[in-house]
Amino acid sequence: MVFELVSRPSVADHFIAELRDVAVQKDPMRFRRNLERVGEVLAYELSRTLPFEDHEVTTPLGVAQAKHIMEQPVLATILRAGLPLHQGMLNYFDRADNAFISAYRKHRKGEDAFDIEVEYLSSPSLEDRILVLCDPMLATGQSMVLVYRALLRLGKPRALHVVSAIASSEGLEYAKRHLPPDTRFWIGAIDEEMTAQAYIVPGLGDAGDLAYGRKL
Fold first, then answer.
1. Which of 73, 171, 174, 192 has its CA 20 to 30 A from that of 137?
2. In angstroms, how far is CA 210 from the centroid of its own chain?
3. Nearest alpha carbon to residue 70 among 93, 100, 87
4. Is the whole-model pTM more than 0.85?
């Protein structure tokens, strides 16, 4: 299942438009906050697919019938660009366990090609858990697949959700082919093109640099 946020007009279109806008991108705090807000909206949409149970809440005037999420997910994020999106998810799943993974593109000298390196992983057990894997940009899809495979060392999740602000259609198809067949994708917007350097077009640029400053 693929959910594309902009397929139904909402205030989230405004958040994504600001993420893309080169003028607004000059304000890193605004960029981080917009990523966070996209994460919040996608967390709300994702929550509608989770199992709930009936619950009674005592108010000052009586007892109200309510519903509680039966199980909090594990929120996993690819550093560093994924942190604002992760925070948006965590604002809604505020009792969730968390996992963090360092993955980056290691470019081959003199070539556009690159390899994906996974260096660091911190996570609770994932055995039979609901795993939400966040990365703001799903470009080639290779990072997402390699990170998921690395996380399998900590147990096999019962369900997998992938959350991204922007995805390329090519990367989305790659991820669908190489991740479990019942994976659910929660995407802000899907773009059709990528450059030779695997940047999404029109995309928004380098999310990590825009959020936290340029790296060497």
1. 73
2. 17
3. 93
4. yes
For the purposes of burial, counting CB atoms within 10 Å of the CB of 13, is it exposed (0-12), middle (13-18) or buried (19 or more)? middle
User: Cβ of 58: how many Cβ atoms within 10 Å?
Assistant: 8
Question: Rounded to a whole number, what is the distance in angstroms from the first to the last CA of the chain?
Answer: 37
Quick check: is 58 in a domain?
no
Provide the domain count of the chain. Answer: 1
User: What CATH code is carried by the domain that includes residue 163?
Assistant: 3.40.50.2020
pLDDT in tens, 22-55: 999 999 999 999 999 999 999 999 999 999 999 9
173 is in which domain, residue-wise? 2-51+70-212
C-beta neighbour count of 150 within 10 angstroms? 16
* Residue 183 identity (one-letter amino acid): T
Whether residue 43 contacts residue 89, with contact meaning beta carbons closer than 8 Å, is answered with yes
